[in-house]
C-alpha cells in the first residue's frame, strides 16, 4: 500500500512541476515583452518643440508686392461672448446685444481707423450655452454655438487671405468668443490651418478676455492674473458625461508660433477663466452655465474686479489693439 501511495504522489507532482515551469516561462516572456516596450517608449523621439524653440518659418508662398485697392491693411476679427451675438447680426454694425462687452472695443476701433486701414468685423453666431440641468432651457448646445462661431471666424480670415494676401490680422474675443479666438490662434500658431503654415507672421496679435481654455503662463497674462485655469480645462473630458457640452481641455500645442502675441485678461474669481478643480460634473456644468452672468464675469468694463494701470479690461484691450494697428505694415495697393 505504501509503495502505491508513493507512486501516486509522484504522479501528482509531475503535472504540478510542469505547470510551475510553464508559469515561470510565461512570466519570463512577459518580462521580456515589458522590457522591449519600455525601451521602445524611452528611445522613441519626442514631439517637435513648440513655441520659441521651433525653427523660424518663412511664408508658405511668395507674396505679391501689392494687393487689391479694397483690401484693408488690417482685419480685426471680433468675437462676442455668450448672449452677445446672433447668427444673422450685421458684422459691421452689430445690434444683437447693444450691451455686448466687445462693442466697447470694436466701436472705438472703428471710430479710430478708416476702413481701408482697419476693417472691424464682428463675427455673427449663435452665442448660446444650454444648461442641461434645466429642462426648460431651449438654447442651442454649447458645441453647436462654439462650432458655428469658429467656422464663421475662420471662414472670414480664409476668404480675406485668399483675396488680400498682404492683409494682417488682429483676433480678439470675450468669454465663449475668447475660446473661439484662442482656438483660431492655436491652430494658426501650430500650422493646423486657417492660414497656411509659414504665414503666422500675418497675425499681429490676439486679445482674450475671460478665456475658458486659459492656462496661466502659456501667453502674456496681463496682471492681475489669477492662478486658476479655464473652465474647459477644469472640466476637461466631460464630453461623454454631458451630451452637447464638450469641455475640450488644454489647447494642443498651446499657441505655438503666436504665444508671444497672445494677450490674456482674467479677473480673479471669474469661474470662466479662473476655475478650481471640480468633482461633480453636473453641478459644475450648472455653475458654468450661470457663470456668464455672475458679477465678476459681467464687470470687465469696470475696474471693480480687474484693472491694470487704472484701465478696465475693455479700455486696456482697445489701447493695445490701437497700438498694434498703428504699427502694422502698410502694404501697397494696385
Automatic annotation (TrEMBL):
InterPro entries: AB_hydrolase_fold, Cutinase/axe. Keywords: Disulfide bond, Hydrolase, Membrane, Serine esterase, Transmembrane, Transmembrane helix. This is Cutinase. PANTHER family: CUTINASE 4, CUTINASE RV1984C-RELATED-RELATED. The keyword Manganese does not apply. Residues 46-71 are annotated as: Disordered. It comes from the Bacteria. SMART domains: Cutinase. The chain crosses the membrane at residues 21-42. It comes from Gordonia paraffinivorans NBRC 108238. Belongs to the cutinase family. Residues 46-58 have a biased composition (Pro residues). Pfam families: Cutinase (PF01083).
